[in-house]
Design a protein that fits this description.
The chain is of the alpha/beta class. The chain folds into two domains: 205 residues, P-loop containing nucleotide triphosphate hydrolases (Rossmann fold), CATH 3.40.50; 128 residues, Zinc Finger, Delta Prime, domain 3, CATH 1.20.272.10. The protein has 16 helices and seven strands. The strands form two sheets. The chain has a five-stranded parallel β-sheet, sandwiched between helices. A two-stranded antiparallel ribbon has the order 6-7. Strand 3, helix 6 and strand 4 form a beta-alpha-beta unit. The longest helix is centred in the C-terminal third of the chain and has 24 residues. The N and C termini lie far apart (62 Å). The mean pLDDT is 87.
Length: 377
């Protein structure tokens, strides 16, 4: 049901009106930051269009065979296309999945099941760097098979920016002349990576960042063990996206945050051995999202320090670390504005496939140059 979607009221309202007025486009481009519901809305749209018993508000019933099949990714009327590992095997029986290794196929099925249970889950298959051209060729072939009972075939290409130029070009023809019973939905968090020929053939729909209250509702529903202070903290760290909670182990978050804060403490105390060791621990995951999480934690820390300096205000985000924040604020004078700019720039650099260990070393040395120990003056 549309009720499964968090926020995005404008997008949902627009799509409902389009359905009611029978003015759905044949190709859409859903774009916006990661973890805001682009895939989720696309899947719910597929359910709404094919539900046997939709209500007056065009909510899918989630009970009929069509809804259940789409939710479980078993439907002939909804195909979900994502990046897959490269394979040396030939495609068998027009099914690209059969060309995967047994291990990759098992991982794919497990990831699909997770997304079935939580539409905001981000499918993650090792070495899946590109959307394969064979996936698009299979889409085209299936698109030209006529749907039964006036149903709509919905093809969702998740993270479509992972198409290389050849793959994107293979999609162009069907974007120009799609069958009338077919809707193609591309989703991306990096619209600038797409060819103009692709974006120009789709109706673009922007997904906004989620509000803190919307994120807190999601957290309450999925992580009942969190207390109110933790809900506030995580809604801040989320930065308008639910994507971070796929990589975040709630049980170990406190120790992870402590490691990040300890990196800063070692740095300003000139304890470079401990500083380097902790950086190595964080970057050893080789995970961009984990690296970004560490930077978000630093950003919130310095914002709390600034709040404490200005108002001596204990009503900060890291409430459980209020004493530590105050001690840091009393002891050090930091150019918070410049530090936050450095942190924001480093987040952009992470998406450019830089060496994470080198990035953190350079970033923290630059941060250290903006901090003075005023307790020694």
């Amino acid at each position: 049901m549309w009720n499964n979607i968090i926020g995005q009221d404008k997008v949902i309202s627009f799509l409902k009106i389009s359905i009611k007025n029978k003015r759905l486009n044949t190709a859409y481009l859903f774009y916006g930051k990661k973890g805001v519901g682009k895939d989720a809305v696309a899947i719910e749209l597929a359910k709404s269009l094919n539900c046997a018993n939709p209500d007056e508000e065009l909510n899918a019933c989630d009970k009929c065979k069509s809804c259940i099949d789409i939710q479980k990714f078993h439907s002939r009327y909804m195909k979900f296309i994502t990046a897959l590992p490269a394979s040396k095997s030939e495609i068998q029986e027009d099914n690209i999945l059969l060309s995967l290794s047994p291990d990759d196929y098992e991982i794919y099925l497990a990831e699909l099941e997770k997304k079935s249970e939580n539409l905001y889950h981000k499918i993650n298959i090792p070495k899946s760097n590109n959307i394969r051209i064979d996936s698009i060729r299979q889409l085209i072939k299936e698109a030209y098979v006529t749907a039964m009972d006036n149903r709509k075939k919905v093809f969702i290409i998740s993270d479509c920016d992972l198409m290389n130029q050849n793959t994107a070009n293979s999609l162009l023809k069907i974007l120009e002349e799609p069958p009338s019973d077919t809707i193609i939905i591309l989703t991306t968090s990096r619209i600038n990576f797409l060819l103009p020929t692709i974006t120009g053939r789709c109706q673009k729909i922007k997904f906004e960042s989620l509000g803190k209250e919307e994120i807190m509702i999601y957290l309450k529903n999925h992580f009942s063990e969190l207390d109110d202070n933790e809900l506030v903290l995580f809604s801040e760290i989320a930065q308008g996206s639910l994507g971070i909670f796929q990589d975040l182990d709630m049980g170990s978050f406190s120790s992870f945050r402590q490691n990040v804060v300890d990196i800063l403490r070692n740095l300003v105390s000139s304890k470079y051995l401990g500083f380097s060791k902790l950086i190595n621990e964080i970057t050893s995951y080789k995970d961009k999202n984990i690296a970004k999480l560490a930077i978000f934690i630093l950003m919130l820390w310095f914002k709390d320090v600034n709040q404490m300096k200005i108002n001596n205000d204990p009503n900060i985000i890291n409430k459980d670390l209020a004493l530590n924040v105050k001690q840091f604020a009393d002891r050090y004078d930091a150019d918070i504005y410049k530090i936050v700019l450095l942190l924001e720039d480093s987040i952009k650099d992470i998406d450019s496939n830089v060496n994470l260990e080198l990035l953190f070393h350079n970033l923290l040395i630059k941060i250290n140059s903006q901090i003075k120990n005023i307790s020694k003056i």
